[in-house]
Amino acid sequence: MSHAATNPFTGKRMAAIFVGGFGIVIAVNLTMATMAVESFHGTVVDNSYVASQHYNGWLKQAAASNALGWQAAPRQRADGRVVVETRGVPAGAVVTATAERPLGTREETALTFSAFGEGVWVSEQKLAPGRWQLRIAIRAGGQAWAGEGALP
What is the C-alpha to C-alpha distance for residues 152 and 149, in angstroms, rounded to an integer? Predict the structure, then answer.
């Protein structure tokens, strides 16, 4: 007598396989959804309608910044201070930035910079290790530039 004859594949066995398979899929989806909701601690914008009303203004600001031709490249030193190397920025400029964590717990730090040679600016504040997104603002001679940069 063969094994198939003593243990036939029945509808009950197929139903158990079917329910078990979908049970695994549902459990994984619930776990992933819970992890996603628990790890998101902020909003991209508080009110998308209000943000949409400012969109064209943001595009004009970006075009004005690009027209200046200024460039800024941030990096973090071992001591936690942020260095911004600039090109095309006139002497006497004022450099500020806001550092935000792109992921995880919402953390925001305002940074002010001091000139540290030609085209080099060093923050007065230190940042903790980790990933940061910087919103950099430079003002000089009645002109304003805004840009973003990431610190790994």
Answer: 10
Q: Structure tokens of 131?
A: 């990933």
pTM over the 0.90 mark: no
Q: Which are the contacts of 141, defined by CB distance < 8 A and separation ≥ 6?
A: 90, 92
Nearest to 148 by CA among 135, 131, 132, 129: 135
Q: Please, which residues have CB within 8 angstroms of residue 143's CB and are 6 or more apart in sequence?
A: 68
Dist. CA 139–CA 94, nearest whole Å: 5
Give CA angle at 39 (108, 30), nearest 5°: 165
Q: pLDDT tens across 50-86, in order?
A: 989 999 998 999 999 999 999 999 999 999 999 999 9
Bridge partners of 104, per DSSP, are 40
List the one residue out of 11, 129, 142 whose CA is nearest residue 80: 129
Instruction: Find residue 43's DSSP bridge partners.
Output: none
